[in-house]
Amino acid sequence: MSELAGVTQxxxxxEVLRVRDLEIGYSTDRGRVxxxxxxxxxxxxxxxxxxxxxxxxxxxxxxLSLVRLLPQSASIAKGEIVFNTSSGGELDxxxxxxxxxxxxxWRECAIVFQSAQNALNPVMRIRGHFADTARDHAESEGVxxxxxxxxxxxxxxxxxxxxxxxxxxxxxxELSGGMRQRVMIALGLLLNPRVLILDEPTTALDVLTQRxxxxxxxxxxxxxxxxxxxxxxxxxLAAELADRVATTYAxxxxxxxxxxxxxxxxxxxxxVGLLDAVPTLAGEHQELSSIPGSPxxxxxxxxxxxxxxxxxxxxxxxxEKDPPLIEVAPGQTAACWHWEKVGSDWEARGGERHEQDxxxx
Amino acid sequence: xxxxxxELEHVSRFYGSGSQxxxxxxxxxxxxxxxxxxxxxxxxxxxxxxxxxxxxxxLEPSDGRVLYAxxxxxxxxxxxxxxxxxxxxxIHQDPYASLNPIRNVTQILSAPLRRHKLVKSRSELRNKVHxxxxxxxxxxxxxxxxxxxxELSGGQRQRVSVARALTVDPEVIVADEPVSMVDxxxxxxxxxxxxxxxxxxGVAFLFITHDLAVAKHFSxxxxxxxxxxxRMVELGSTQRVVREPVHPYTRALISAxxxxxxxxxxxxxxxxxxxxxxxxxxxxxxxxxxxxxxxxxxxxxCDTDRPAEDAVDLDGHLAACYxxxxxLGQEDRIPESSRIAASxxxxxxx
Lengths: 361, 350
Hints:
CATH architecture of the domain at 1-104 and 236-280 and 291-361 in chain A: 3-Layer(aba) Sandwich
Strand order of the largest sheet of chain B: 6-7-8-3-9-10-12-11
CATH superfamily of the domain at 1-104 and 236-280 and 291-361 in chain A: P-loop containing nucleotide triphosphate hydrolases
Shape of chain A: globular
Number of domains of chain B: 2
CATH topology of the domain at 1-104 and 236-280 and 291-361 in chain A: Rossmann fold
Oligomer: heterodimer
Low-confidence stretches of chain A: 1-12, 355-361
Distance between the termini of chain A: 42 Å
Strand order of the largest sheet of chain A: 6-7-8-3-9-10-12-11
Order of helices and strands of chain B: EEEHEEHEHHHEHEHEEHHHEEHH
Largest interface: A-B, 48 and 44 residues
Largest sheet of chain B: 8 strands, mixed
Number of helices of chain A: 14
Structural class of chain B: alpha/beta
Radius of gyration of chain A: 21 Å
Helix content of chain A: 25-40%
Number of helices of chain B: 12
Largest sheet of chain A: 8 strands, mixed
């Protein structure tokens, strides 16, 4: 039961999504890639949850599974993904037919892909993308077509600070990368979904464009009631936009907590390692260190704690037994046998430094 | 090997011709002193990579000169040119594309050693390859000698690229976004290796990155040059550029950068741009290329003459901005025509 400590606390309050003990794997010639292992979390309306981790940590697979867009080679071995739909019912995505799934996508949960360049149809004007999405959901209540569709599309494009007149007529190649990314976000908002998933929404964009996207997302969150899930390798994006942060490693959540808890009082050595590896622009020159070794092979995972080969705290216990995700502070969980030591070391070397810097800024 | 500065003198690179001509790099000048680090930062399309490629001799400037030991690189006799090619090495952004997939690590590192006749015997070759792998932290070397690029992680491949650049004992390494395709947890390890090369071997770096925080970390004792639409808009010591930026574009970049610290990044002061869209290189605005977006824009002053690279000169800290020049008491650096246009614009609005 300790696996669920800290994640269950939010249940009941306008919960929109509940994921329990999710396992996803890919079958390959070499064997089964265990991309997501035993992931559990809750998401509430208004909540913004960031999954951070490196390539191969399973975060994109997790994001795709929430709209059931996994490639053919992937399969959900066990677990449940339960949405509380807008009509009030519960929908377990691990067990639905295609038709239900088709209605569910965009309307209940929309995803904005990493590469907006490839996500838009190059021979279709932006207006066509909006019309397509609406047409696919024409049978559900609140049909959008003709003038109503144009009005709604215009409204969505304004929300992301684009000029609807120009953009609706444009082909994707006529827009810049940042504009295409904003079109994708606007398209995601078209049918008022309860959850918006963003996979690396600002990667590959320039700093000033990135800032524009962050501002759009911040404003959207203030004015609208929907939950967001970010998937990113970029810690600063999580720092900027998330209410809660989940650190993922080798397909598992290894730490989950409020953004301040995770950034200022991390209790998992991998989170500490990531924070130590990222340079900041503010303040003096810092000594930075990288995490030794490389991310593990998801086909041939280490025994015990999957982080132990790279971890400075590793002991025999870590090599033998995978630690459960346990509550380390109210609302914060971590999967580490030595979380108390990790925490006291962090606080002892002035882990609060960042926080003080922030107060001064 | 004697160490000599490399100088870019009013270097430009144009593509296309007539109305379709693009000035990817337009009149950029700077010198890299032996052992120095200069970071070029800017957004995509600002000309930073093109500048790096011209410095490395991979592209000919359309205008201006690259000087090595005081002489124009394009006019060097064959023997001297070979020396220049050895002196300046480049590390590319994508370690998946820059290494030959059918050669193993030993072959990749041996080729330049043989080509430049830097080793006399097989045993010397083997020792040199071992030594290089150790320098870049690929240890024990025996584990890597026979590996092909596809058997290595992105971080390891990039280390092989660094080792390859080191084979010929270069004076300058042009590193073009060397860590942007490497995982977050491994980036700093690679940067620290490059830093060590600089400290231990005295290699100078032209380090190209879009990430100001990485530039700050890598070049704390060095300099940063900020490029925008093919031009150098600010050039000065890293600490001063980061703490007291002069050019509004640099200030916009710094204020826009998200930081991995929730309190800091959410309370950061933001500079609001007048327009989010970057102008096309095919249709550059008159005067300062940043003026359509610049929060400090003044009619007449900013859209008449293009500010010179050293419109502001604070003890060698340069910035191409007339508004800053006026505010910092360097009005004499603003050309007559801009001053007249500015006062006329003021009179019209008054």
